[in-house]
Amino acid sequence: MDQGSIARILKQVSGGDDEIQQLQKALLDYLDENTETDASLVFSRKFYIAQWFRDTTMETEKAIKSQKDEDSSEGTHHAKDVETTGQIMHRAESRKKFLRSIIKTAPTQFSTLKMNSDTVDYEDACLIVRYLASMRPFAQSFDIYLTQ
């Protein structure tokens, strides 16, 4: 991964403190801008929104499950884990809220809400997709799957 390019994209894209959300927004802007030239990008955009929403939901469910497991075991790190779980829940809710706002926005309205659509070109969009894909659990544990 080219961290320098990711950092450059994050600097060009103004937004909140969540870098994943900023990259998602930049990618959605790129896809929305180019839907006129390639109709399949409409489906790609919808797929990414649905997948990110699902990932956020799964992350929330895992946090709740781990909290319940910790409650039953009453470990010494309980207070630290609850705080971490609360942070995960808060971040997940903010991402869900962001994705819901994107879903409710019509594509024609979405184009007027763009930050800077010319900040992301095709190569940057490919880099964003690779970076976001590398953050998924399967990509992070790929070596384990190959070893098994």
TrEMBL record:
Listed GO MF terms: chromatin binding; cohesin loader activity
Any GO BP annotation: replication-born double-strand break repair via sister chromatid exchange
Cellular-component GO terms for this entry: Scc2-Scc4 cohesin loading complex
Chain positions covered by the region annotation Disordered: 61-86
Biased composition (Basic and acidic residues): 61-83
Cited PANTHER family: NIPPED-B-LIKE PROTEIN (PTHR21704:SF18), NIPPED-B-LIKE PROTEIN DELANGIN SCC2-RELATED (PTHR21704)
Protein name: Nipped-B-like
